[in-house]
């Protein structure tokens, strides 16, 4: 087997050195009747070529985002990732290293985490950011738990514009922890009266902007009301590129900002791995979940970086920890940081403008199609349209025509009576031809 | 000391840095400033054209202030991150015997497979008809995991080991609530030797953690478990093989006692690498077990993630598996994304989408490559390698539970360092100077000054021989009073020992500009 260096001669010599006759003597503690005599019932080993053939065959059965006019978003976005990013994250010193528990030989990881934290804090307009969460949805669940620790209250109010899967992750966690959650009705127009839900019993209010229907939400009045009642505003985003153009959640009064960072540096990957961004104010750092990288000096006085404030964490605090998180999304955070470094402020803001401009063009073109109504007054690179027919059916028909048109709202919110709504996203990748193809295909099926 | 560019100017200790350089670099050992000290606010390494003029539709919520994100051109970016990478130790650099972390070879075939466009360039919410191959892969991975463990079902979506623990414990909680015992069964038994994630996970969802004390032989005893069992116990969280590097010989009896008391057996699968193809957790009576794909099935650790923590479930817990999951329908593979669409009783959802697809591909590529014969051989070699290290060091280092066979990792304590003035931490740092990543230190907590060594099956005999010889040399040096070799170590790493107390006392968690960002941006 090509990955196993020991020869049979090595094995015999080693067994002799250990003082046993067979390797099964080393498994003596396994109950005899449960020790398997034969390999399990799975195929035997394969060469690289054979594995490549099997997996390539599976891969070829999927329609890739790059191969068709592509308008699918709702929490994951197709952007162009520079070749440099994927090359660098495959450097073996990054790829094959562990969580930087030995900082003297992990300064590469620690320095990029410090850069990542700085970038995320700047983007979100917050004072501190952690070294990443699994993704935006799990990060949102952690943010709610953190708000409960800070406020010592146990009730969250979720906006009807929060991604339904995010809301479900929060509800699952809250139900299990016996915390209460109020979920607002789906809010297609971004006009819900969420402030009326905030009172002295509320720990946090969770609002996404741009929301799942694409609306850009003004967070300031919500933050004001929340703070008046001693509650926290958790601001969520699923499209981090929007922060290049939209006022930061921090500038609007958010206490915790959490979101999905996949758009920068990371591929669609059918849903993962992604990278959760998590930022807050300095006064809350001891209640934060996740790893934190901090600056210090070494014995010679040279600047260096270490994981810090680990007394919050599970390996020290055990059942008193702020979170059970251990592994996070290190390499995806690196991809984010490298892509963000390549973009810089100039590149990110331009990328955001291109996304917004493309979405505006698309919205205007779709508004001219009979049987399509664009519902949004505000949006960044994604908006909701109302179709004359059920969106799921239309999306299937369009897929057969080679256009991936978006996400039917009914897939996220079945039974909500929103079957004719479709979420349509447009990034820098969409060309005039893509838009024309979508418009033409819609005209045919509607 | 640091100069304006953040480069060190101190000469360091005589003999080590006897010939200070102007740059602070030492040939290939480059000193690299922070991005924020070399980047520029008007520089970009990505060529995108400005869009045609448009009227924003952001409802007046446009960003008005600068962000504060410096950029670099492409060659500068490449150099910056390559230099950072050169300050890191990885599996490809050398032996990485981090106990309980299974730092095995990361085959690049798996990287290539994960980047096949049909896996990496598909969206989680595309029509199911356009992702049949992706669903097939998930289904196949699930079949492999269920077969290797002899369990009934698998929940693939958890994002890492601790997330998998959470998923498994949620399934247990759901099952208990379905039995109407949610209010009475609140206790989860956790041995003292467990990973910190176990008690943290149980506490997160409202369980009360009760410890099972450690015995002097490193094993959990069935009578210690029985003593604590009662109508208030929901589950035990047991790691097997355990964190002392030992297989729990009474695991089947413990499972039976747990089940007889109406509770569930959660197994922490962090150490599954020792027994893949040798024993099936389902045969041992396990109800739920997470599998760290980033340990046992070699998906890269990536400096701390991403991981992936699928959970296999027994027949009793299978109905509670969270959404989404894949099954074969009449029109091919189907994806159940809503609890209301399921015939079972999913407890909820762990994450927005379908989990770590990129890791699924890598893990399946590993399994296909090894095959059932190769996976069995890998486990045997992992165990053989750990025992070879034990045999090579048992006369100089101290084994807390006696010189008996271990699984895929061998645990030493610090009794052998008594009166030397050298600590486990010092030994770890001296190993760095010798070109090794240290072993896991001070874990498990049940052993004083623990040193947990897991070589994995990826090491050759000659590599192990050199490692053993090195540790023997270090042990002799410590015993012979060469304290300085340890207490000042590392001498040769990119950094000397770092001041962690200072970092925690006055946390500096981001770079702050010497002058306002707005000014610098102009």
Automatic annotation (TrEMBL), chain A:
Residues 1-402 form the Glycine cleavage system P-protein N-terminal domain. Its EC number is 1.4.4.2. GO terms for biological process: glycine decarboxylation via glycine cleavage system; nucleoside metabolic process. GO terms for molecular function: glycine dehydrogenase (decarboxylating) activity. Coiled coil: none annotated. SUPFAM superfamilies: PLP-dependent transferases. InterPro entries: GcvPA, GDC-P_N, GDC_P, PyrdxlP-dep_Trfase, PyrdxlP-dep_Trfase_major, PyrdxlP-dep_Trfase_small. Belongs to the GcvP family. N-terminal subunit subfamily. HAMAP family: GcvPA. This is Probable glycine dehydrogenase (decarboxylating) subunit 1.
Automatic annotation (TrEMBL), chain B:
Pfam families: Aminotran_5, GcvP2_C. One of its GO terms (cellular component) is glycine cleavage complex. Keywords: Oxidoreductase, Pyridoxal phosphate. GO terms for molecular function: glycine binding; glycine dehydrogenase (decarboxylating) activity; pyridoxal phosphate binding. SUPFAM superfamilies: PLP-dependent transferases. It is an enzyme of class 1 (oxidoreductase). GO terms for biological process: glycine decarboxylation via glycine cleavage system. InterPro entries: Aminotrans_V_dom, GDC-P_C, GDC_P, PyrdxlP-dep_Trfase, PyrdxlP-dep_Trfase_major, PyrdxlP-dep_Trfase_small. Residues 378-475 form the Glycine dehydrogenase C-terminal domain. The keyword Glycoprotein does not apply. It comes from the Bacteria. Its EC number is 1.4.4.2. The keyword Lipid metabolism does not apply. It catalyses: N(6)-[(R)-lipoyl]-L-lysyl-[glycine-cleavage complex H protein] + glycine + H(+) = N(6)-[(R)-S(8)-aminomethyldihydrolipoyl]-L-lysyl-[glycine-cleavage complex H protein] + CO2. Residues 184-302 form the Aminotransferase class V domain. PANTHER family: GLYCINE DEHYDROGENASE (DECARBOXYLATING), MITOCHONDRIAL (PTHR11773:SF1), GLYCINE DEHYDROGENASE, DECARBOXYLATING (PTHR11773). NCBIfam families: PRK04366.1. The glycine cleavage system catalyzes the degradation of glycine. The P protein binds the alpha-amino group of glycine through its pyridoxal phosphate cofactor; CO(2) is released and the remaining methylamine moiety is then transferred to the lipoamide cofactor of the H protein. This is glycine dehydrogenase (aminomethyl-transferring). It comes from Microvirga vignae.
């Amino acid at each position: 087997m090509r990955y196993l260096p020991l020869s049979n001669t090595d094995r015999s010599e080693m067994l002799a050195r250990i003082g046993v006759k067979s390797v099964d003597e080393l498994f003596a503690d396994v109950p005899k009747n449960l020790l398997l005599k034969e390999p399990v019932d799975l195929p035997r080993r394969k060469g690289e070529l054979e594995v490549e053939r099997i997996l390539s065959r599976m891969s070829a059965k999927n329609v890739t985002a790059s191969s068709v006019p592509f308008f699918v978003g709702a929490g994951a976005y197709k952007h162009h990732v520079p070749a440099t990013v994927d090359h660098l994250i495959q450097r073996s010193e990054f790829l094959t290293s562990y969580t930087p528990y030995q900082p003297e030989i992990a300064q590469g990881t620690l320095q990029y985490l410090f850069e990542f934290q700085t970038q995320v804090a700047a983007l979100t307009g917050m004072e501190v950011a952690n070294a990443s969460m699994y993704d935006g949805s799990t990060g949102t669940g952690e943010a709610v738990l953190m708000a409960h620790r800070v406020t010592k209250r146990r009730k969250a109010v979720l906006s009807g514009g929060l991604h339904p899967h995010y809301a479900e992750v929060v509800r699952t966690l809250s139900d299990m922890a016996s915390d209460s959650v109020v979920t607002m009705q789906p809010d297609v127009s971004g006009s819900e009266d969420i402030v009326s839900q905030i009172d002295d019993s509320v720990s946090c209010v969770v609002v996404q902007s741009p929301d799942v229907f694409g609306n850009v939400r003004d967070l300031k009045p919500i933050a004001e009301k929340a703070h008046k009642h001693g509650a926290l505003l958790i601001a969520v985003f699923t499209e981090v590129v929007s922060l290049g153009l939209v006022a930061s959640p921090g500038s609007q009064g958010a206490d915790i900002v959490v979101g999905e960072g996949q758009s920068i540096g990371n591929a669609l990957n059918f849903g993962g791995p992604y990278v959760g961004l998590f930022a807050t104010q300095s006064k809350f750092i001891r209640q934060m979940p996740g790893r934190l990288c901090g600056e210090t000096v070494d014995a010679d006085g040279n600047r260096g970086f270490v994981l810090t404030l680990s007394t919050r964490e599970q390996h020290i605090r055990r059942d008193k920890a702020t979170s059970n998180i251990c592994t996070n999304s290190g390499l995806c955070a690196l991809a984010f940081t490298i892509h963000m470094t390549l973009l810089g402020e100039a590149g990110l803001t331009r990328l955001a403008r291109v996304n917004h401009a493309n979405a505006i063009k698309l919205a205007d073109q779709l508004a001219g199609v009979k049987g399509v109504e664009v519902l949004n007054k505000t949006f960044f690179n994604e908006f909701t349209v109302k179709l004359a027919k059920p969106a799921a059916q239309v999306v299937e028909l369009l897929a057969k025509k080679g256009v991936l048109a978006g996400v039917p709202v009914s897939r996220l919110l079945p039974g909500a009576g929103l079957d004719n709504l479709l979420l349509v996203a447009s990034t820098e990748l969409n060309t005039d031809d893509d838009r024309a193809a979508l418009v033409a295909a819609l005209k045919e099926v509607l | 000391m640091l100069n304006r560019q953040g480069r060190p100017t101190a000469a360091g200790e005589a003999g080590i840095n006897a010939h200070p350089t102007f740059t602070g670099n030492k040939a290939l050992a480059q000193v690299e400033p922070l991005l924020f000290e070399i980047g520029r606010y008007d520089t970009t390494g990505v060529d995108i054209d400005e869009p045609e003029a448009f009227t924003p539709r952001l409802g007046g919520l446009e960003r008005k202030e600068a962000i504060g994100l410096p950029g670099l051109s492409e060659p500068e970016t490449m150099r910056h991150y390559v230099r950072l990478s050169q300050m890191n130790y990885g599996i490809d650099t050398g032996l990485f015997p981090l106990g309980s972390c299974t730092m095995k070879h990361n085959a690049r075939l798996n990287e290539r497979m994960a980047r096949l466009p049909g896996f990496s360039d598909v969206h989680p919410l595309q029509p199911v008809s356009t992702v049949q191959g992706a669903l097939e892969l998930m289904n196949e991975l699930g079949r492999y995991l269920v077969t290797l463990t002899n369990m009934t079902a698998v929940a693939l979506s958890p994002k890492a080991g601790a997330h998998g623990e959470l998923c498994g414990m949620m399934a247990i909680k759901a099952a208990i609530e379905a039995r109407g015992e949610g209010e009475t069964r609140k206790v989860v038994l956790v041995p003292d030797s467990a990973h910190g994630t176990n008690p943290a996970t149980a506490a997160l969802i409202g369980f009360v953690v009760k410890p099972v004390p450690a015995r002097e032989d490193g094993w959990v005893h069935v009578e210690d478990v029985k003593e604590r069992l009662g109508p208030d116990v929901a589950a035990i969280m047991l790691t097997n093989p355990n964190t002392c590097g030992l297989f729990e010989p009474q695991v089947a009896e413990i499972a039976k006692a747990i089940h007889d008391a109406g509770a569930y057996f959660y197994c922490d699968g962090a150490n599954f690498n020792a027994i893949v193809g040798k024993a099936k957790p389902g045969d041992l009576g396990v109800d739920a077990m997470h599998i760290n794909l980033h340990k046992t099935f070699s998906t890269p650790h990536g400096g701390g993630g991403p991981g992936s923590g699928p959970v296999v479930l027994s027949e009793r817990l299978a109905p509670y598996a969270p959404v989404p999951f894949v099954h074969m329908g009449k029109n091919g593979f189907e994806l159940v994304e809503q609890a209301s669409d399921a015939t079972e009783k999913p407890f909820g959802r762990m994450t927005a989408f379908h989990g770590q697809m990129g890791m699924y591909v890598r893990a399946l590529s590993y399994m296909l490559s090894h095959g059932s014969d190769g996976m069995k051989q890998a486990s045997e070699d992992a165990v053989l390698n750990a025992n070879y290290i034990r045999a090579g060091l048992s006369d100089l280092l101290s084994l807390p539970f006696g010189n008996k066979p271990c699984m895929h990792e061998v645990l030493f304590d610090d009794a052998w360092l008594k009166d030397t003035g050298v600590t486990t931490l010092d030994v770890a740092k001296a190993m760095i100077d010798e070109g090794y990543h240290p072993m896991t230190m001070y874990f498990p907590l049940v052993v004083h000054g623990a040193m947990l060594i897991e070589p994995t099956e990826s090491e050759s005999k000659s590599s192990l021989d050199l490692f053993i010889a090195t540790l023997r040399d270090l042990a002799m040096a410590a015993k012979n009073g060469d304290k300085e070799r340890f207490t000042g170590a590392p001498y040769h790493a990119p950094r000397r020992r770092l001041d962690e107390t200072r970092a925690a006392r006055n946390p500096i968690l981001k770079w702050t500009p010497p002058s306002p960002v707005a000014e610098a941006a102009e």
